[in-house]
Design goal:
- The chain has about 400 residues and is of the alpha/beta class.
- It is about 55% helix and about 10% strand.
- The chain contains 16 helices and eight strands.
- Strands 2-3-4-1-5 form a five-stranded parallel sheet, sandwiched between helices. It has a three-stranded antiparallel sheet with strand order 6-8-7.
- Strand 7 (about 360-370) and strand 8 form a beta hairpin.
- The chain is globular.
- The chain starts with a helix and ends with a helix.
- The model has no long low-confidence stretch (mean pLDDT about 90).
- The structure holds a DNA duplex (33 and 33 nucleotides).
Length: about 400
DNA sequence: CGAGATTCATGTGAAGTATACCTTTAGGCTTAA
DNA sequence: AAGCCTAAAGGTATACTTCACATGAATCTCGTA
């Protein structure tokens, strides 16, 4: 591309008016002024957490619901209001929000407590300290608050799956030793049956109160989208039917509002990039592909080397009708030799397959082939359009 | 022919090891009085 | 003498390995009809 051409492109970009009035309204972290269709839940949460304003410990709270049903946004919404009121009333109240899914941030006991302590302003090294030492620091900073601390643990199911439920138990018991402060837990889970596999003691203490977030239906998603679109876009840039289509797509997937918003935003971005001044229906389809692709690529990029190599082995077997752990491991060893990396044992390899499965990149289910043993049947859950790009990235970063 | 034993390939749990990183401590060096 | 830096010691979490045992249905075995 010649220089003049590039400059021409920039000029065109600047001349072209953006379709967006305020893009951040469509971002998933955005907390709107008004939350539609969640009045019941919000009232309940507010009622349960309200004692915090009188410096009493609120009940621990447990929120269930599929992804994109507004759990997180409702909690954040209430957190904002609560902290606001607390500040004006001079009540010492602290709300900590932490997403447990974040790998290498909050997926073990140590890391979780360390992160919480950091949030309260005391730095904790990533490793090296005894866990009870970290607990002590945590204790101290909590005690310094001299008030109620509400800890919101988003995607708590992920944490428990990886690190066990003692953490929660410990957290609920911390209160017994606190003199000047109290902590209350708010657990958020996408997994509806998660609590059933919990230690009964933990379960009873965590879910003193429970609130279920039902999925939105297509109509509700539409109103949500409309509300946000009005703020996010300039007048008349959305073709008729686009909002309905986004809502329909999302409703198909258990009423995931987050997904609907993302679809709308990405569709508009694509249209804008192509210099259109109208977001037409076809961009919604493109957006769906792009979102899927970006999500996969993001996950893949951030994997550690060994996981990448594991995934690459599976990719190169993806032509085969059935992939079994043993076969994948053979291929994996070959690649290890090629890039002169010391291969992991099959034991660990098996665990990594399990981890990749949890991430939703692959699908691995344990089957018994009777006389021919027991193994995992592995398949990729990467779409056709995305696979080449994924392989490319793996190849690049692995230098195969 | 059918119930029970066998078998295979790998899942899975527990315990041990290597590595990277933390704090503490002791010793040595510098500095200022 | 006090202050500062460095290196070693002692300790931890995490990722991984080693060892050992568990799994579960296709297949085999063998007694019975």
């Amino acid at each position: 591309m010649s220089e003049t051409k590039i400059i021409g492109l920039f000029e065109k970009f600047l001349k072209k008016e953006s379709l967006f009035e305020n893009k951040s309204v469509l971002q998933s972290q955005h907390v709107p002024e008004e939350l539609s269709h969640r009045d019941d839940q919000i009232d309940q949460i507010a009622a349960i957490l309200a004692p915090a304003l009188r410096n009493d410990k609120p009940s621990n709270l447990f929120l269930y619901g599929k992804t994109g049903t507004g759990k997180t946004v409702a909690t954040k919404y209430i957190s904002q209001k609560l902290t606001e009121v607390a500040r004006t009333q001079g009540v010492p109240l602290k709300i900590l929000y932490l997403n447990c899914k974040l790998k290498r941030v909050a997926d073990t006991e140590y890391r979780l407590i360390a992160e919480l302590t950091r949030m309260l302003g005391k730095n904790i090294p990533f490793t090296g300290l005894p866990t009870d030492e970290v607990y002590n620091s945590f204790f101290e900073v909590i005690e310094q608050q001299k008030g109620v601390v509400i800890i919101v643990l988003d995607e708590i199911d992920q944490l428990v799956a990886k690190a066990g439920d003692d953490i929660i138990y410990n957290l609920t018991r911390v209160n017994a030793d606190l003199k000047h402060s109290q902590i209350a837990l708010v657990g958020i889970s996408n997994d509806l049956i998660f609590a059933d596999n919990l230690d009964p003691r933990v379960k009873s203490s965590l879910s003193e109160e429970e609130i279920v977030f039902p999925p939105y239906n297509a109509l509700q998603i539409q109103t949500i989208l409309k509300n946000r679109a009005d703020k996010a876009f300039k007048l008349d840039v959305i073709a008729p039917g686009v909002i309905q289509k986004c809502a329909a797509y999302a409703a198909r997937e258990h009423g995931d509002a987050r997904r609907a918003l993302e679809l709308l935003r990405v569709a508009a971005e694509l249209a804008e990039r192509e210099g259109q001044d109208l977001v037409s229906l076809k961009y919604v389809d493109h957006a769906e592909e792009k979102i899927e692709k970006d999500r996969m690529l993001e996950i893949v990029k951030t994997q550690p080397q060994q996981h990448k190599l594991t995934l690459y082995s599976i990719c190169s077997l993806s032509e085969a009708p059935k992939i079994y752990t043993g076969d994948a491991y053979e291929v994996y060893r070959e690649y290890c030799k090629q890039v002169s990396m010391r291969p992991l044992t099959q034991r660990r390899f098996s665990d990594i397959i399990g981890e990749l499965d949890m991430l939703g990149i692959i699908n691995a289910k344990v089957i018994s082939k009777g006389r021919y043993g027991r193994t995992r049947e592995i398949s990729l859950s990467i779409g056709k359009h995305t696979l080449p790009k994924v392989e490319e990235i793996l190849k690049e970063t692995l230098m195969v």
